[in-house]
Specification:
Elements: E1 7-9, E2 17-23, H1 31-41, E3 46-52, H2 58-67, E4 70-75, H3 80-86, E5 89-90, H4 92-97, E6 102-106, E7 109-113, H5 116-127, E8 136-140, H6 144-155, E9 160-165, H7 168-178, E10 184-188, E11 198-203, E12 221-229, H8 234-245, E13 250-252, H9 255-270, H10 277-286
Parallel strand pairs: 2-3, 2-4, 5-7, 8-9, 8-11, 9-10, 11-12, 12-13
Antiparallel strand pairs: 1-3, 4-6, 6-7
Helix pairs in contact: 1-9, 5-6, 5-9
The chain binds 2'-monophosphoadenosine-5'-diphosphate.
């Protein structure tokens, strides 16, 4: 089902390429707006749609998109691990993480890439000027987005990674996939009072989308800790409010990561990297407030 009218930019004589983002919910996705801005800036013709698809609908919706000439797609909650399974080939980053957020049509099938991790690190270090190297890090969640950022955080030099997930088996599976038992630990959610304290806390759960509170204790926060929520807008408000009240030095939402992962995806599809500052500023002004420190 097409959920939104397509954003059409610079129709070329041979017609614009067709792109989309798949997820559920998808109606309020900012990706069509971001890719339209990139395309406008770089004078590239494209049509970018938001397509609502549950995990059950996804294979059929993607096949219909390919039949209509779809060249590339972003994949968001809750489809990133499903996307990894249906690709004919995946990049090394996507294989490691078992998570795909960017699909590229290659011949009769899809090639999968994961740009979330690069997007997160570019946003934290580049846009916000914060360091991650040496930080004791807590990762909340073990779904597709969490898996992608776990590898990127370790590559960026965090000192230790603790993973906690509501369903402990998924946290264990992620720790096993990383395979560094000396530096990567899992914790049961029910023991969260005994997890210790952390210099960097990353919320990669989708709890905020359902307005669910994670009920985290302030004891998780080390002095000068940085908190980052992969969500943005209202979905991030609960975690960011907790972070501020518990004494975080910075509480940052995932808007910048969204823009940066989109720029990486755009480069995968079109071979040119767009500038991100203008669209970031535009979206920051457009989103409801209280989302960034
Ligand atoms: P994404 O692609 O965004 O990672 P996902 O793969 O569906 O989406 O993962 C969602 C994550 O949010 C999972 O870690 C999920 O925990 P479970 O593995 O137990 O399902 C977590 N999550 C969702 N709602 C939550 C809640 N209310 N409290 C805690 N964790 C929650």
């Amino acid at each position: 089902m097409i959920d939104e009218e397509p954003v059409t930019v610079h129709r070329a004589s041979d017609g614009p390429g067709l792109y989309a983002v798949f997820g559920q919910p998808i109606a309020h996705s900012l990706s069509p707006r971001i890719h339209a801005a990139f395309a406008r800036d770089l004078s590239i013709a494209l049509e970018y749609r938001a397509i609502e698809a549950s995990a059950e609908d996804f294979v059929g919706a993607l096949a219909a998109f390919a039949d209509r000439g779809g060249l590339g797609a972003n994949v968001t909650l809750p489809l990133k691990q499903h996307a990894a399974r249906l690709c004919l080939s995946v990049s090394e980053r996507a294989r490691q993480a078992d998570s795909v957020n960017t699909l590229v049509r290659r011949g009769e099938g899809w090639h999968g890439e994961s740009t979330d991790g690069v997007g997160l690190i570019r946003d934290i270090t580049g846009r916000h000027g914060l360091y991650v190297r040496g930080r004791r890090t807590l990762l909340l969640g073990a779904g597709g987005a969490a898996r992608a950022v776990a590898f990127a955080l370790l590559d960026a030099g965090i000192s230790e990674l603790t993973i906690a997930n509501r369903t402990p088996e998924r946290a264990d599976a992620l720790a096993d996939a990383i395979g560094k038992p000396e530096g990567v630990h899992t914790r049961y959610w029910s023991d969260l009072g005994q997890w210790g304290s952390f210099d960097l806390i990353v919320n990669a759960t989708s709890a905020g989308h359902g307005r669910m509170s994670l009920a985290l204790p302030p004891s998780l926060m080390a002095p000068r800790a940085v908190c980052y929520d992969l969500s943005y807008g209202r979905a991030s408000f609960g975690f960011l409010a907790w972070a501020r009240s518990a004494g975080a030095s910075h509480a940052v939402d995932g808007l910048g990561m969204l823009v940066e992962q989109a720029a990486e995806a755009f480069e995968v599809w079109h071979g040119r990297r767009p500038e991100t500052d203008a669209i970031y500023a535009e979206l920051r002004a457009y989103l409801p407030g209280d989302a960034e420190d």
